[in-house]
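U., I forgot to send this yesterday:
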Amino acid sequence: MPPGKCSSACAQSLEMQDALSVSVAPVVVFACGNPSRGDDALGPLLLDQLQIWLDEEGLADGFELISDFQWQIEHALDLVGRRLALFVDAGQQTPAPFAFRQVQACDSTITGTHALSPEAVLSVLVRVSPQPVPPAFVLCVAGASFELGDGLSAAAARNADCAFELLKNLCRLSRFDAWQVKVSDQEAEGAPSPQA
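Result:
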């Protein structure tokens, strides 16, 4: 095949990539957690609740919701073509009811292929794609009990209610500047922003 020419399979692949990039939802919301480990279920539970609310509000087309036990390198590809990204998780030392912060790709070396931080997922995208990294935020909801077999604690359920109100506000105003204001509001309240 002459240089610069593309086989029909290659051309079909490029067309499919173009079609996929057109149809991707502008906002991706990741949640991680293990529903069998008490308050670690906060992320997946909030995501389920969010899907129902988005459907009821007619906003679902603007969001892709992705749930997993932990964030992995493959999730970097889910960031391609997005306008905003949100990572939702439970935190053991998070001040109640939650911490909301902006995150950036980290410069540190990634030593594993699973159980990554949101910053590490962003840095994978920097390394594997010429696509820009979307502005990204973390919503870390305070949890208290993470034992295998435990149900959701009463405190975590209250924190989830507060976090869900924030999620609805973020989805109503899914713009970078609006999300930055929410971060500033939390910082003004004096709440620290720990890692998820």
